[in-house]
Amino acid sequence: KINWSDAIFGYAMGDQNQDLSFSEVDDTGNIPKCVVVGDSFDWEETVRPNIPWSETVIYETHVKGSTYLRRDLPENTRGTYAGLSSDNMINYLLDLGITAVEIMPIQHRIDNKMLVENGLNNYWGYNTIGFFAPDIRFSSDEAPGRQVVEFKKMVKKLHENRIEVIMDVVYNHTAEGNQLGPTVSFRGLDNPAYYRLNEENPRYYNDFTGTGNSLDVSHPQVLQLIMDSLRYWVSIMHVDGFRFDLAATLARQFYAVDRLSAFFDVIHQDPVVSEVKLIAEPWDVGPGGYQVGN
Description:
Blueprint: E1 58-61, H1 63-67, H2 81-84, H3 87-96, E2 100-103, E3 107-109, H4 113-117, E4 128-134, H5 146-160, E5 164-169, H6 186-194, H7 220-235, E6 241-244, H8 247-250, H9 262-269, E7 277-280
Parallel strand pairs: 1-2, 2-5, 5-6, 6-7
Antiparallel strand pairs: 3-4
């Protein structure tokens, strides 16, 4: 959880120089913290369904939205990983004839400051900051780290019913916004490495995503982060595939979209990630962006 204090911006709020000013305020108590969770889990004899593409029927859904109003579920499991894998929900999915659920973003995200100030939240979740962490807001158990176990239980139960799990993933940008922040992770670690900066004025970001920033996937450090994350979700969490949000941004080597980019090259050569289902959203808002049929 993030506390929207002035401390997390890294500059003196209200100063006429904005982000060019300097802040000495400690932000330790205001930014999200990591939780170390063991990988052990009893998958028993559960195996991946491995449904052929030709037989795949995908059901796109939101973890909360799929069961939040279902009165046939216990109240504490509605809108959770447990709710999505409940017997009633699975029977509903099987009756539809689907073979895979594509779940909208569940990696840990941040609610924008403006939303929080207006009593709202980022429902859809396309504002990621933690690429290895399931979103705790979809867990019926709010104890730190328990969302990992509940997510695995969901995958296991769906696999037992021959339903695959495909994740909608957002690796094209992060929740750190533009030059005005906040600064909660990557910007503070190595801003020029993680983000695409304007060559003429590196104070500003090349925003190919419409969110304020774009991750620089052409940088080896960023590419490794993404690949480590993908392998984690396949190897440890047992998901069956990914849908890449604004995949064109991931394919930008410099400015132009390159379908032979390092990202696509590594994806197809990786012995783990290349074996699961991969879906690309083929556009972004950047110059010369690739669009299907255009």
